[in-house]
């Protein structure tokens, strides 16, 4: 198995395949330090938590992660409401940073002396539609070729794998949002809950990485940049978007990371072409409003690894043949809820007062209807993985 990309999708796939006795080589274009420097996701669905535990990656997560019963939404300065995932779904989700998961995956790979080639250059999947695909690349100045049975494209949105699917075959669906999220990390005690805010000044989110590490976001215009946001201005704006009692509870401090992520929804179909299988951001991108990006990478890897185990273990290619459709059913479900939450919680340029009030009364409905809350709780927790037929 050739795995292009050493982010969460690629490294998790390599780990799970190893535990099934299936060999893989991971080709990562960046250094390990660079991969670990990226601050990204923070919320794990119960399904993701189980996959990590089942594959020997749960010990530190269970020790350092923070289990949550649900998340809170505040809007228009009103009293907040709590989406009680535990009450409606019977499960809790986990706040545990993607960086920690990446560290845990690298540590597991080192323990098993995995073949992970960092700083692999000019990686190219070749003959993916044949039954003898291979990957060419340069590593430490030498030109290399890796012959393999299958190629997993785990190289993210800007990777090379998706481009190996012929344009006549590839179908792309995209929506670009007219704003981004300015995120900061600060060594301050976080609010006790994950709190989303819809405010006329724009969206805000309070989250955490540990009892001493907070993660906050505010919606900013697409053309904005971090240079416009000294810490003082960020904290003032963040507090302005929360009701007084929550704003007063936010502990401020120097930022240790500050970045702006653009928001887009994107899905590439199919997620398979010949012996190339896409997984994670290589196939789909969601606005982080629903905390789905990393979780979808895990569900893709769960389905793909199960299919590969059936192929190598029982000679059955049925799950490989069904991989794309099965993964896409879960992808589109997450893409839809992420799009819905993004529309519900953000202030769009050109939005009228009517639009703002309509948003607020949709929130009013979700906060007052057991059925609406249950539907949102089920989606936020993530739909159960499909059984193998
Ligand atoms: P990744 O992009 O993480 O990893 C792909 C890897 O492939 C990278 O290491 C890259 O260097 C490598 N690669 C790329 N091209 C290559 C090539 N040609 N050859 C070899 N290697 C190559 N999700 C959330 O749930 N919540 C969030 O708050 C959140 N914030 C985000 C902020 C940003 C700025 C970004 C970009 C994403 C964010 N996400 C968030 C989504 C994110 O967590 C992804 O869903 C997750 O990283 C997906 O993992 P992978 O599919 O492994 O892709
Ligand atoms: C995070 O903790 O980074 C986070 C939490 C919830 C989201 C997105 C990001 O919806």
Fold blueprint:
Blueprint: E1 2-4, H1 8-19, E2 25-27, H2 32-37, E3 43-44, H3 46-54, H4 59-64, E4 66-68, E5 70-75, E6 81-84, H5 85-89, E7 93-95, H6 98-111, E8 115-117, E9 121-126, E10 134-139, E11 142-147, E12 151-153, E13 171-186, E14 195-198, E15 204-210, E16 213-221, H7 231-240, H8 244-247, E17 255-269, E18 272-273, E19 276-278, E20 284-285, H9 293-314, H10 318-345, H11 353-368, H12 370-381
Parallel strand pairs: 1-2, 1-12, 2-8, 5-14, 12-19
Antiparallel strand pairs: 3-7, 4-7, 5-6, 9-10, 10-11, 13-16, 13-17, 14-15, 15-16, 17-20, 18-19
Helix pairs in contact: 1-6, 1-9, 9-10, 11-12
P-hydroxybenzoic acid is lined by residues 41-43, 194, 205, 207, 215, 288-291.
Account of the 3D structure:
By secondary structure, the protein is an alpha+beta fold. The protein has two domains: 2-43 and 95-175 and 264-372, FAD/NAD(P)-binding domain (3-Layer(bba) Sandwich), CATH 3.50.50.60; 180-262, D-Amino Acid Oxidase, Chain A, domain 2 (2-Layer Sandwich). 37% of the residues lie in helices and 27% in strands. The protein has twelve helices and 20 strands. The chain has helices at 8-19, 32-37, 46-54, 59-64, 85-89, 98-111, 231-240, 244-247, 293-314, 318-345, 353-368, 370-381; strands at residues 2-4, 25-27, 43-44, 66-68, 70-75, 81-84, 93-95, 115-117, 121-126, 134-139, 142-147, 151-153, 171-186, 195-198, 204-210, 213-221, 255-269, 272-273, 276-278, 284-285. The strands form four sheets. Strands 6-5-14-15-16-13-17-20 form an eight-stranded mixed β-sheet, with helices on both faces. It has a six-stranded mixed β-sheet with strand order 8-2-1-12-19-18, covered by helices on one side. Helix 1 packs parallel to helix 6 and helix 1 runs parallel beside helix 9. The longest helix is centred in the C-terminal third of the chain and has 28 residues, at 318-345. The two termini are 24 Å apart. 45% of the residues are buried. The mean pLDDT is 96. Bound molecules: arabino-flavin-adenine dinucleotide and P-hydroxybenzoic acid (PHB).
